């Protein structure tokens, strides 16, 4: 058995066609998803790159430091209290000292004679912690180079020889890290302009012409009337033109204005938006940011298409399970922030892709609607290689339609830059609870209806205060 894991760092599920996005072109990932099992509600337990890495390997990070948190149900702030740990029904094993290699997934696979290879197709500044790399049998660098035209050029050059070696292994795990969705972005101008709407003059002209035809077809009498008055209007325009000669200054000013045929100025992509607050009241910045990211997603999708074709060339589409997932979703101003600035646990941050293609595209087009979370990848990979997981929930029975998710909810907790927050998602709602808010900022609990409010824009807490209080009590319960 072989498994190949693609980690698309910073990838929000909502930007992929497989998760309902009809605006951004992702044909290769869509094709991959059509041959796979798509997990619709894969929710981060902690949207932090290091936390995700620990969850995937089945090890624990060092214990977080205590933080300030409000007292139950909105009271004052108490010293020395801490954010409770998420409490999924099937937690991954807790061990002391997550830095130590040889624990969890990689040690179990080594015992089972599974060769593990990690490919760093990311920039050095997005590397994970050393303990994440230490347990792999081989760490292979396919980092983007300065002379490359795109993010995955180096990976695509290296893959044929690497895949030839990997295909010869009886059992192997190939783990590929990609950071092309994290800024600073490598953006092609032509793809960006296609999303920005530049060069749409021809479309507008065609629309205008079509409208004229429609109007003519609707009322021929109006056309005849226009013909009758055309000569009179021409005479009136000539008389108005000779009544007043324009001033020289006006002529000079008018000549400096762009004519309809003048090319529009080139707008460059927003290559490196700053991490931090974002003004939702600025529609131009919103379009600029989202058009840039859409171009990045489409370009990455094209490169992944080449990678998927290489897997097929080496027969790995028939002998391997391929998984596409992410560590967190990169916020793009949806709730007033860009990047990891505050731990506001909205869908763009916590809803992650999880697409599992079984060998030979078995179970293609199946969708799993139950809640899953990153710690589930650890027992799933063990199960793939015939190692019975002693803890956790393997997703293979769900992927094969043999079972349903045991989770009725997904809990997330995150602390970042002096702020902390928890959230709980159920079939009917998503509740977000601030645990610590930086001085001078304001952040209230929020309740959103699900699945109707997909992007979490309508706070229903005031209308459903009893439900909000119940969910808050549940989040604050000691986890033991």
Describe this protein's structure:
With 480 residues, the chain is α/β, with parallel strands linked by helices. It has a domain at 2-194 and 272-407: 3-Layer(aba) Sandwich (Alkaline Phosphatase, subunit A), CATH 3.40.720.10. It has helices at 27-34, 49-57, 104-111, 130-134, 153-168, 189-196, 201-218, 220-243, 248-255, 283-313, 316-319, 347-350, 377-384, 396-399, 465-476; strands at 2-8, 37-43, 69-70, 77-78, 115-121, 138-141, 172-178, 276-277, 320-325, 337-338, 351-352, 354-357, 367-372, 410-416, 419-425, 429-436, 446-449. The strands form 4 sheets. Strands 1, 2, 5, 6, 7, 9, 11, 12 and 13 form a 9-stranded mixed beta sheet that branches. A 4-stranded antiparallel beta sheet has the order 14-15-16-17, with helices on one face. Strands 3-4 form a two-stranded antiparallel ribbon. A hairpin with a 3-residue loop joins β15 (419-425) and β16. The two termini are 38 Å apart. The model is unreliable at 62-102, 198-221 and 248-257 (pLDDT under 50).
């Amino acid at each position: 058995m072989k498994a190949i894991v693609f980690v698309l760092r910073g990838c929000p599920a909502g930007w992929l066609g497989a998760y309902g996005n009809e605006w951004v072109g992702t044909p290769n990932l869509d094709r991959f998803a059509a041959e796979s099992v798509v997990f619709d509600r894969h929710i981060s337990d902690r949207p932090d790159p290091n936390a995700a890495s620990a969850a995937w390997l089945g090890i624990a990070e060092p214990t977080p430091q205590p933080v300030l948190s409000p007292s139950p149900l909105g009271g004052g702030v108490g010293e020395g209290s801490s954010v409770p740990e998420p409490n999924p029904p099937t937690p991954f094993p807790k061990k002391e000292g997550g830095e130590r290699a040889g624990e969890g997934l990689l040690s179990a696979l080594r015992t089972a004679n599974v060769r593990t290879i990690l490919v760093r197709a990311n920039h050095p500044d997005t590397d994970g912690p050393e303990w994440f790399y230490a347990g792999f049998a081989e760490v292979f660098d396919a980092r983007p180079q300065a002379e490359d035209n795109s993010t995955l050029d180096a990976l695509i050059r290296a893959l044929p020889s690497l895949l030839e070696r990997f295909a010869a292994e009886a059992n192997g795990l190939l783990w590929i890290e990609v950071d092309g969705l994290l800024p600073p972005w490598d953006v092609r101008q032509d793809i960006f302009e296609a999303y920005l709407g530049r060069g749409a003059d021809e479309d507008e002209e065609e629309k205008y012409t079509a409208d004229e035809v429609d109007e003519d077809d609707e009322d021929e009498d109006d056309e005849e009337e226009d013909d009758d008055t055309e000569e009179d209007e021409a005479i009136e325009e000539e008389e108005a033109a000779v009544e007043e000669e324009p001033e020289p200054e006006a002529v000079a000013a008018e000549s400096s204005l762009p004519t309809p045929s003048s090319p529009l100025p080139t707008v460059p992509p927003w290559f490196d938006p700053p991490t931090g607050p974002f003004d939702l009241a600025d529609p131009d910045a919103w379009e600029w940011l989202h058009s840039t990211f859409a171009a990045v997603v489409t370009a990455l999708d094209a490169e992944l298409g080449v990678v998927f074709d290489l897997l097929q060339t080496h027969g790995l589409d028939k002998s391997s399970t391929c998984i596409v997932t992410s560590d967190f979703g990169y916020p793009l101003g949806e709730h007033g922030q860009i990047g990891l600035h505050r731990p506001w646990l909205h869908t763009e941050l916590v809803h992650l892709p999880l697409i599992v293609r079984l060998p030979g595209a078995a179970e293609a087009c199946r969708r799993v609607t139950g809640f899953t979370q990153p710690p589930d990848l650890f027992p799933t990979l063990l199960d793939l290689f015939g190692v019975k997981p002693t803890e956790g929930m393997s997703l293979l029975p769900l992927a094969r339609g043999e079972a349903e998710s045991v989770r009725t909810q997904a809990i997330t907790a995150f602390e970042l830059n002096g702020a902390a927050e928890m959230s709980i998602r159920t079939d009917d709602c998503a509740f977000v609870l601030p645990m610590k808010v930086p001085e001078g900022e304001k952040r209230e609990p929020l309740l959103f209806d699900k699945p109707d409010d997909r992007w979490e824009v309508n706070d229903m807490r005031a209308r459903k205060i009893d439900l909000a209080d119940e969910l808050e009590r549940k989040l604050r319960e000691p986890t033991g």
